[in-house]
Design brief:
- α1 crosses α2, α1 crosses α3 and α2 packs across α3.
- The chain has two domains: 80 residues, Arc Repressor Mutant, subunit A (Orthogonal Bundle); 205 residues, D-Maltodextrin-Binding Protein, domain 2.
- The termini are far apart.
- By secondary structure, the chain is an alpha/beta fold.
- A hairpin with a 4-residue loop joins β1 and β2.
- Strands 3, 4, 5, 6, 9, 10 and 11 form a seven-stranded mixed β-sheet that branches. Strands 1-2 form a two-stranded antiparallel sheet. Strands 7-8 form a two-stranded parallel ribbon.
- It has eleven helices and eleven strands.
- Belongs to the LysR transcriptional regulatory family.
- It holds the Pfam family LysR_substrate.
- It comes from Sphingomonas parva.
- This is Hydrogen peroxide-inducible genes activator.
Amino acid sequence: MTTYLPTLKQLQYLVALKDQGHFGRAADACFVTQSTLSAGVRELETLIGVTLVERTRRVVRFTPLGDRIAEKARRVLREAEELADMARAAGKPLSGELRMGVIPTIAPFLLPRLLPGLREDWPDLRLYLREETSQAACDSLHRGQLDCVLLALPYGCGEVEAEPLFDDRLFVAFPPGDATGQKGVAITPAAIDEDRLLLLEDGHCLRDHALAACNRPELRAEAAMLGTSLHTMVQMVGNGLGVTMVPEMAVTAGILEGTGVVALPLEAEHAYRRIALIWRKGSPREKDFRLLAEALKQGT
């Protein structure tokens, strides 16, 4: 009796459709046409003899069995990728493709300093970068869409290994001419006016790090959470709308230039975030990741 097994390509199409919830977007994610992806999913359904996806003109809805098979397919694809990872790990170190996630409060400030040296020292490494918020990056890591993530700790990211790179001190940014900002000394959490505090919106771990460093529960309720990026926050502070917190790497990278904003270090027990490279626990490329972390340390 001949047994026909699903192909990895069919499973990839199914998982992409599950993630995107739309045939067109799933096709784009797989770099194929919509008709190719749709045909692949139908071939899979015919092969296993069940309906996985209910198709309507507006909605793609997975059947209960389709949901379970999609999650199983995700694990199969991850295992297949790890086969290739094992082969790469046995060959030349830090070579081939590597997909790294970077959170938005790190990417624009750290990567310009790190990437030139990394390209020079490891020319065979093809590093693909994806900027995502902390939770989205962790989700992508565990779904197998990323190999590692440049993250700020502490942050709950599930079963991962971490290699700390350095500590990034937190600063309080004041508008031009602000009396407190003109003192030129470190600022304690008690000196922060909760009615004027501007923070990043939910999804950015810097917000949680800033609140934890202050250890003032009322700030979480009172803070005006308006910003979608650090650059936006600094511009609001520069226009006198309040104060905010910025990491030292952003200050060093020149985020305050031309704004008149003054940043003073926060004086508190945990007034920093720890920048680290993380990856899935048990990954066969652990040696590569630790080597990459060492290279990143040397570039900072």
